[in-house]
Structure formats: C-alpha cells, structure tokens
C-alpha cells in the first residue's frame, strides 16, 4: 500500500469517526432516561429517609449526586435569564456566575421538592415517540391519593439526555423563575451583578402563585 493511499484511508476513517461523534444520539429512550434518574434519586431518599429528617444538607448532597449530573444548567440559565442572557444586558462572565449560583439554588429547590415524594410511588405516563431534540416525559407522583404530574423537558446533548426544564402540575418552572429573576433585576435598579447575587428561585412560590 503506497503512502498516498494510506493517508487517504486514514483521513477517511478519521472523518467517519468525527462524523459519528458529531451526530451521536442518546442510546436511551427518553422514558428510560427519566425513570433511571427518578429511581436513582428516590431510592436514595427512601433508603436514608429516617436520617434525612430535618437534615437539608443530607438531602442536598443526595440530590447533588443523583440529579445534578443530569441537569442542563446552561439551557436552564438561558430560559431563566430570558432577554438578560443576551450580550445587550449581560457579559459572558455574568452569565457564568448566574449559572453557578442558579445551579446551587436549583439543587436546594429540587431537594426539598423530591424529599416530599421520597415515600410515595409514581407511574410513568405513556410516551409518544418524537424526533424533537426536546422531548417531554411525564411522571405522576401519588401523594396520599393525589396525583401530581411532573414533566421533564429533555435536551439532546449527543451522547445522553439532560433535563433542561421541569413542569409541575402544569406550572412551567423555567418561565416562573424567569419572572422571579426579572422582578429581582427591577428591585435592584437594573444592576445585573446585584440581581445575580440576590436571586433565589423559589419553586414553591411559583406553584402557589398559580393555585
């Protein structure tokens, strides 16, 4: 085999590998991914239920280990910041700081929410296959006879799914958090740095407001 042919074959193989990586798709179906995440988180909360009472730090640690790796915090940041995520209103450094802060408070929000469901059962709603990069999978939590639907909007990140937004009982938390952040910006006189430092997304307040 001459040198030119070797180089041609090598280039062909590398380009094929790169193309395969670029267009890789998650190997799991969306419902299987959501069930894996929910089962992993809830099983840990159930196993440690007794020692997690009045122990928010323990709940937070479990959520960080079992939910945080599957959150698309960049997408969530863009949803919540809304127009403030553009260069007109914020810098890349400010958006990165917002993402760090938001991710931390998101863990606290979901930690307290899922802790309430730790001894409950849930069922998966039938899923309709979709070619969308943002499919939605819904779980019904059974809370003392009351069904509480929680929908997970996913993002196709190539090698795996990630959660980009959550809807609870018909309430789009991403949009509700956006309203909360806009109000925080207003309270701080339009100062983005102060708004980012003071913003505390509140899932319970968002849901209660719609009741």
TrEMBL record:
Coiled coil: none annotated. The keyword Signal applies. Keywords: Signal. Residues 1-24 form the signal peptide. The keyword Signal applies. It comes from the Bacteria. This is Toluene tolerance protein. It comes from Acinetobacter gandensis.
């Amino acid at each position: 085999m001459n040198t030119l042919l070797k180089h041609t074959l090598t280039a062909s193989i590398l380009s094929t590998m790169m193309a395969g990586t670029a267009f890789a798709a998650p190997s799991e179906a969306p419902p299987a991914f959501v069930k894996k995440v929910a089962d992993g988180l809830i099983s840990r909360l159930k196993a440690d239920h007794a020692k997690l009472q009045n122990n928010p730090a323990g709940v937070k640690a479990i959520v960080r280990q079992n939910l945080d790796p599957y959150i698309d915090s960049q997408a969530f940041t863009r949803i919540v910041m809304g127009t403030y995520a553009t260069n007109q209103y914020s810098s890349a450094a400010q958006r990165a700081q917002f993402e760090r802060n938001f991710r931390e408070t998101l863990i606290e929000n979901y930690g307290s929410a899922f802790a309430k469901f730790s001894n409950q059962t849930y069922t998966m709603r039938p899923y309709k296959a979709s070619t969308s990069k943002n499919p939605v999978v819904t779980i019904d939590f059974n809370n003392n006879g009351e069904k509480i639907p929680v929908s997970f909007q996913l993002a196709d990140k190539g090698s795996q799914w990630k959660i980009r937004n959550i809807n609870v009982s018909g309430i789009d938390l991403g949009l509700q958090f956006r309203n909360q952040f806009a109000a925080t910006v207003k309270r701080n006189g339009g100062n983005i740095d102060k708004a980012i430092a003071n913003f505390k997304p509140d899932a319970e307040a968002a849901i209660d407001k719609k009741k």
